Amino acid sequence: NNLLTGKNFIIMGVANKRSIAWGIAKALNEAGANLIFTYQGERLKREVERLIPELNQENTLLVECDVTSDESIDNAFGTIAQQYPVVDGLAHCIAFAKREELTGDFSDTSRDGFQLAHDISAFSLVAVSKAVKPLLKEGGSILTLTYLGGERVVKNYNIMGVAKASLDASVKYLANDFGQYNIRVNSISAGPIRTLAAKGIAGFNENLKVIEEKAPLRRTTNPEEVGKAAIFLLSDLASGVTGENLHVDSGYHIIG
Ligand code: 0WD
User: Does 237 have pLDDT greater than 80?
Assistant: First the structure.
């Protein structure tokens, strides 16, 4: 389909082919969008470079952006602005917590681990939203990825759950700030998907088994399904939707 032909989208957080960001990239590519990728460091740059030929993109812009650094964010969006005066949207697919804090008691979270998880997983959305706003000259759509562990207690998700709660609230405040510029801000709450980030969470495989047994669709979610929902939220199909969290989780969130 040609839903997004001629539109420019920034995708942050492709680490490898299993990344949810890559599922979103494939869906946006399929819909005709031009893609701009940001990566965290040299190692991930090579990974993204290897993947890009799978898409039918021309001259894809690849920009380094470490979201823990204001300077890196400024440089990245400055570089993007030089090549793309107008951007139509951004997918923020970034999170991090210390592995040792994704197991055991939440009350054992360190000050440092608490701050780091919030900085990379929640504040980064605020910072990149501010940075991309001047490029969204014709309105636009910002999308982030969240998880059920921010709405209720999910075993071992711990500090990442608390950071996701902060991210979810940030979506609402950003949506309210930016609505007057016809910029929408939404999230997708994805069901558990086996990715690099997910490997850090203790007991992740058991969690997948529970989803297969209990979710209304009786199966886990895949990145392609998140990609399809992303097309909706990032396109004009969702022109009336902002501050929303769309669960793409085989329906698991309704199960008590
Ligand atoms: O089950 C899952 N996998 C779910 C993931 C369920 C629901 C939500 N999510 C969320 C994650 O919390 C995250 O927000 O989806 C988002 C994408 O995560 P992913 O696709 O599961 O994981 P991954 O492929 O590892 O991508 C996350 C990436 C990083 O990868 P690594 O694994 O290298 O930390 O976030 C990026 C990095 O590419 N990232 C950063 N980017 C810029 N600056 C930084 C940073 N400082 N730190 C991490």
Answer: yes
Domain 8-251, architecture per CATH: 3-Layer(aba) Sandwich (3.40)
Q: Is 252 a catalytic residue?
A: no
Judge whether 242 and 179 are in contact, CB under 8 Å.
Answer: yes
Nearest CA to ligand 1 atom 3: 193
ipTM of this complex? 0.98
Orientation of helix 124-132 relative to helix 70-83, angle to 10°:
30
Rounded distance from Cα 197 to ligand 1 centre (Å): 5
Residue type at 104 in one-letter notation = G
- Percent of the chain at pLDDT > 90 equals 95
Beta strand pairing call for 61-64 and 183-190: unpaired
> Which candidate, 41, 46, 157, places its Cα nearest to that of 106?
157
In Å, what is the CA distance from 115 to each residue of 1, 160, 198, 236? 42, 11, 20, 36
Give how far the C-alpha of residue 230 lies from the chain's centroid of Cα atoms, to the nearest Å: 10
What is the residue extent of each domain of the chain? 8-251
pLDDT, position 256: 86
96 lines ligand 1 (CB under 6 A): yes
Q: Please name the residue whose Cα sits nearest to atom 27 of ligand 1.
A: 94
Residue 157 annotated as catalytic: yes
Among all chains, which residue has been given the structure tokens 């399904």? 225
